[in-house]
Structure formats: C-alpha cells, structure tokens
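for the writeup, i need someone to sanity check this before i put it in the appendix. the sequnce is what the collaborator sent (i think, or maybe the updated version? ugh). structure was predicted straight from it, no edits. if anything looks off just tell me and ill rerun, i have time this weekend
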Amino acid sequence: MAADEEAIDVDNDVVDGTGAPGDLVDGAAVEGAGPVDFTRDLIRWSESLAGIARTGLGFTESLYEQERYEEVLKVAADIKAAADDALEIRREQDHFVQEWLDSVGEGVPGYVTPKVAVGAIVGNDLGQLLLVQRADSGIWLYPTGWADIGYSPAEVALKEVHEETGIECEPVQLLAVIDGLRMGFTRFGMYMVLFHCRATGGELTAHPLETSGVGWFGPDELPRTTGGAAWWGPMAFAAINGERLAASFDPPRDDVWREGTPER
C-alpha cells in the first residue's frame, strides 16, 4: 500500500517552518508547483549529488577523481545553500562542504546511504495511542529514534518506547517504510521504519532530556501540535483497533530524475 504523501515532523532533525502537514506532496517539482515544492527538490538534488561524491571519494585512489568529486560537493553545497536561503536559514557553502568531507569513509564504510529512523505506534487496551512531546520543538509524535547497530529494527522500536515513555511493549506488525526526503519531513536522506506495538506494562515516565510530556490519547484527543497525524493517524488507530494492515511504502515514480525539459 503506497504511503499517503503528507509531511510529518520527526525527532529534532527535520525541516522546521516549511509548511503545515499537507503542503508538501509528491517528490518531483512540476510546472506550477509552489516554492516549497521546489525547495524540497533543491534539497533532494543536493543530498543526492553529495552522496554520489562522498561515495566516490570513499572508493577512488585517483587524485584527479578526488578533485572532481570535491568539485561536485561544492556544487551540491551551493544548491543546498540556495535551499537554505529559500527557508531563511543562513549557512555558508563552505559549511556544507566541510561537513560532507568530514563524513567521508574509505571503501564500503564510505558508501553513503540514507540514515534509518524507527518509530512505534503503541496502543493500549483502551484503544489509545502513546505520544511524546519533543522537548526542543514542542511537537507531539509517536516515539521514534535512530536505528542502533546491534539491534534489529523491532528491537530499536521497543528500546525507544521504553526510554522515552517508560512503557514496555511488544511488536505486532510493520506499518510503513517511507522515504523522509520524498515525504518532505527531513532535509537529508532518511528512511522511516514504523511499527505497530502493543503496550504490555511499565509506567508513563517522560525522558528528562528528550521529552517534555508523554501521554495516552484517543483519536479525537490528539494535541493540536501533533506532527503529521493526517497521514499516520488513521493507520495508527486502525492498527490499534485490531486491523491487520499491509505495510505502507512510497510508490515507485515513473521518473525518479526528470529527463530533459517539458515541451511547451
């Protein structure tokens, strides 16, 4: 089942202030698209070019190729700086180039791939949903965090739930695997793996650093500042109410990269 493509906020590494959920739609900019759509395209192009260049730097031993890849990084940084200007975020091109160069590995560790975040839709016997309020942004969202080496995705989900809320749970089903860049809620390559889990014990206890609130909410009780519930809310409560759902994902696009220019 393809994901309903609306923007959501997740953790503290997301785009802030680029529009309310629903302002961002499918990934490719089209004729007549608004400035937010084009800005998101700039970010995607920049991150893709930077990933190609950093991977090349991780594998090549040719000085000539190293210089060419570094030039590509400069172009990618210029594109990203332009996107920042559109978002009224002021960072210089050199900031991005140095940040990318510092992350270059050698060989296979240098192959650049999207980061992976894991989220958990946790329900209880009353049909309520577990949410946390992010301490930095004030946004309410399901528990989520970066995938850790040594843990399976489901194990990360359980760990994040317990760390952020004090609740113990068990995984029930996989709900979604989505591309954060395409959905418009991150400014770098990231995949979100979303699980449905069932609460089994524990007591509500907010993490002292990461969260400023935690609680159980029914479908008509979600806080006003809940992030992206328009796309994940119906799916979440359907799962909590016992429905078995096909995992949601981003449908393949006919053209991931636009070729040529449209005829007029």
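Confidence is low (pLDDT under 50) at residues 1-33. Helices lie at 35-59, 63-86, 93-102, 153-165, 180-183, 229-240.
thx in advance!!
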